[in-house]
Amino acid sequence: MYLIWMMIVGNYRANIEVNQETISFYFDDEEINKKAKRFLGKIQVLGALITIILVLTLPELFNYFSIIIYFISLLALPYFYARKLHKQKFA
User: Fold this and answer.
1) What is the CA radius of gyration of the chain?
2) pLDDT at 57
3) Spatial distance between the Cα atoms of 17 and 30, rounded to a whole number of angstroms
4) Which of 87, 90, 81 has its CA nearest to residue 33?
5) How far apart are the C-alpha atoms of 67 and 17, rounded to whole Å?
6) Ramachandran angles phi, psi of 19, nearest 5°
7) DSSP string, 52-73
8) What are phi and psi of 73, to 5 degrees?
9) What's the sign of the alpha-carbon dihedral 59, 63, 65, 70?
10) 11/39 Cα distance (integer angstroms)
């Protein structure tokens, strides 16, 4: 149930105003934050779908690992994507 809620939030994430949420305070550029938020929303929806499939098919022991990997990817991947965009723009 929680993963379905994460899919809904991920789908809505692109509509949040830039000033309400930023990926990182290091990246003050609006364009970078907007692209990183869209990327985060896509990861959130796609990752939740993959995690739901894994939870339903794998043994119970691996369910926790797949959920932990999902949450770590939600934290790390958008930050690295925003960092890459920042380097491309200001390098």
Assistant:
1) 15
2) 93
3) 10
4) 81
5) 28
6) -75, -20
7) HHHHHHS-HHHHHHHHHHHHHH
8) -65, -30
9) positive
10) 11
Structure tokens at 11: 């789908």
Per-residue DSSP letter, 26: T
The first and second tokens of residue 43, run together, are 């990861």
pLDDT given for residue 69 in this prediction: 92
What the block records as the tokens of 62 is 């691996």
Determine the residue type at 62.
F
The tokens for 40 are: 């985060």
pLDDT tens across the length of the chain (91 residues): 678 877 887 777 766 665 555 555 556 777 888 888 888 888 988 999 999 999 899 898 888 898 899 999 988 998 899 889 888 988 7
